[in-house]
Amino acid sequence: MKSDIDALMLERNLDALIVFGNAEHNPPMYYFTGGGHVSGATLIKKRGETPILFCNDMERDEAAKSGLTIRSLNAYPMQELMKQAGNDVSLLGAIRLQRMLTELGIVEGRVGLYGTLEFGSMYYMIGKLQGLMPQLELVGESAMTSIFIRAMETKEASEVERIRAMGRITIDVVRQTQEYLTSRDVRADEVLLKEDGAPLTVGDVHNKIRLWVAEHGAELPSGFIFAAGRDAGVPHSAGTETDLMRLGQTIIFDIYPAERGGGYYYDFTRTWSLGYATPEAQEMYDQVKEIFERTFENFDLNAGFKDYQIMTCEYFESKGHKTQRTENAPLDGYVHSLGHGVGLNIHERPFSNMQVDDTHRLKAGVVITSEPGLYYPEKGMGARVEDTIWVRPDGQMEILAEYPYDFVLPMKKWKGK
After folding, report:
1. CATH code at 261?
2. Cα(278)–Cα(261) distance, rounded to whole angstroms?
């Protein structure tokens, strides 16, 4: 939680931290500011003190909504700084940052660097800052182990409610998609038709999904997956837009929208087959659904998340499928890990892959996904089932947005074979 930041700074011997970039679509900055139209800002926090947000005067009212102490970047005259920097814009940024840090009494010690800026200019500026302030130790952290990813791991009740609200939007869009697909006319060759009688393509469905998400006031900053047939057998294939929508092929619909402005995500997947399913596809789906249910029933408070990845591998192996335990980087079978945390990032701690350490646990307050899947691209099929789950303070596991698990979706205007 955000209240853990100072303890984490102490644990990592950080005297201060700096977050660069916009308030939107920038998780470390969003975590402190709550988003808003604040661009090119710099946030500085000393350990044990409240953060200071430096921003342009043009955005002072937007910045004030964060509730943070605001200071104006215009207090550092550009013309004066440019002259001092010899017209070197990156050096100008380093000189300005030196003044800001010095005014806050940060002239030595370890300082962590976070946020989002263009890499080249950031690298140059930080190098210049190090030369200007040699007593500072400027520290970078891995995105998967940083102070922010550790603090974000457990959610406050208000964060969970925002994720739950995104879940409601998600299942509304999924319901709209299902109702649209099942209401289509079907040609004699089992191709679905649009309202004007033209063949319905995957790209047409993609456009509908984007529209419905936008109408709900959400965004798709990390994209989404609506993939059919062979593409459903490649886990992160978004779907080929020119493919025709047909009956009897597996469709993986993995949708992970976020609050507008780069806020909290939800993550959700269903697998469908329109009209009917082949026996092989039905068997594959039934196995995915069975291990999805089994892991959910066995999730325990404070258990290692990796333990359930092992359980999932063992189950799929018993059914004759490859897993990451039986083959290095398999391209079919069960090819990924069971789940991950969800929050301001679509992928957060805790993780369930075999390489994680013992700290990745189902602690009270974490929000995770569970998403087992099987993939057979050469057979033209794949299946995945996913829900987002909150580990409640009482240790119970709660799916934050319920939706049916129907695999075969009956077509309203098709008489069948």
Report:
1. 3.90.230.10
2. 42
The stretches of 188-278 forming alpha helices (DSSP H) are 202-215
Residue 367: name the closest of 108, 47, 153, 65 by CA. Answer: 153
Residue 192 near residue 274 (C-beta atoms within 8 A): yes
**Residue 226's closest CA among 283, 287, 270?**
270
337 and 285 share one domain: yes
- Residue bearing tokens 């079919």: 332
pLDDT tens digits along 51-96: 999 999 888 888 899 899 999 998 988 888 888 888 888 788 899 9
**Contact of 154 with 392, CB cutoff 8 Å:** no
Residues contacting 371, CB < 8 A, separation 6+: 267, 269, 338, 339, 384, 385, 386
Give me the domain span that covers residue 82. Answer: 2-150
* DSSP labels, 347-361: SEEEE-STT--TT-B
d(CA 20, CA 29) in angstroms, rounded, equals 7
Please say whether the dihedral angle defined by the alpha carbons of residues 97, 102, 103 and 105, taken in this order, is positive or negative.
Answer: positive
pTM exceeding the 0.90 threshold for the entire prediction: yes
Give the long-range contacts of residues 402-407, CB within 8 A, separation 24 or more: 402/171, 403/171, 403/174, 403/175, 403/268, 403/270, 405/270, 405/289, 406/272, 407/271, 407/272, 407/273, 407/277, 407/282, 407/285, 407/289, 407/383
**pLDDT tens-digit profile of 381-400?**
999 999 999 999 999 999 99
Count of structural domains within the chain: 2
Domain membership of residue 69 (yes or no) is: yes
User: Could you say which DSSP state residue 189 is in?
Assistant: T
In a domain, 414, yes or no: no
Helices (runs of H) and strands (runs of E) counted in the chain: 11, 19
Give the residue from 323, 330, 332, 321 showing the smallest Cα distance to 232: 332
